[in-house]
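Weekly puzzle thread! Below is a chain. First person to post its structure in token form gets bragging rights.
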Amino acid sequence: MNSPGLLRSLDLTGRTVVQKTTAGTVGALALKEDSLMVLRPTTEPVPGPGEESR
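Winning reply:
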């Protein structure tokens, strides 16, 4: 599933959700020879309704 809107509408109570993406890996590998790479952690929880991201 690649639809944040659809995912948000599902009741996932009691379930474990695993997100997999290769886009960040592909981008990081493309820049591996560069001297500076700025990345945002991908381990931060997704903000809930009414919450702001960190």
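Puzzle host: Confirmed. Bonus trivia for everyone else. The mean pLDDT is 76.
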